[in-house]
């Protein structure tokens, strides 16, 4: 069950309450009887791994960031070869 943080708008009393998702939000401060307000903070989420991409759920992908990849270039016999270094002047 999740833990919710509450703060009283009148006396400033703060506390945490463990409640089910289906439970109604608390409305009355247990200290002064004032109005309560839920507090929202940052959530500590970390994403580990290579990443999450739009294409991850598509069929046929074998890795993150997949998609159709171009075939690897092959070497050609007609590649230009570098000329031998010239003699010093």
Automatic annotation (TrEMBL):
<dbReference type="Pfam" id="PF09723">
    <property type="entry name" value="Zn_ribbon_8"/>
</dbReference>
<feature type="domain" description="Putative regulatory protein FmdB zinc ribbon">
    <location>
        <begin position="1"/>
        <end position="41"/>
    </location>
</feature>
<feature type="region of interest" description="Disordered">
    <location>
        <begin position="56"/>
        <end position="89"/>
    </location>
</feature>
<feature type="compositionally biased region" description="Low complexity">
    <location>
        <begin position="69"/>
        <end position="89"/>
    </location>
</feature>
<dbReference type="InterPro" id="IPR013429">
    <property type="entry name" value="Regulatory_FmdB_Zinc_ribbon"/>
</dbReference>
<protein>
    <submittedName>
        <fullName>Putative FmdB family regulatory protein</fullName>
    </submittedName>
</protein>
């Amino acid at each position: 069950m999740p833990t919710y943080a509450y703060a009283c708008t009148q006396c400033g009393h703060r506390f945490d309450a463990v409640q089910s998702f289906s439970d109604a939000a608390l409305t009355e401060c247990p200290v002064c009887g004032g109005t309560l307000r839920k507090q929202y903070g940052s959530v500590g989420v970390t994403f580990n791994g290579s990443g999450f991409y739009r294409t991850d759920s598509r069929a046929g992908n074998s890795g993150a960031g997949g998609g159709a990849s171009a075939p690897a270039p092959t070497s050609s016999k007609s590649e230009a070869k570098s000329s031998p270094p010239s003699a010093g002047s």
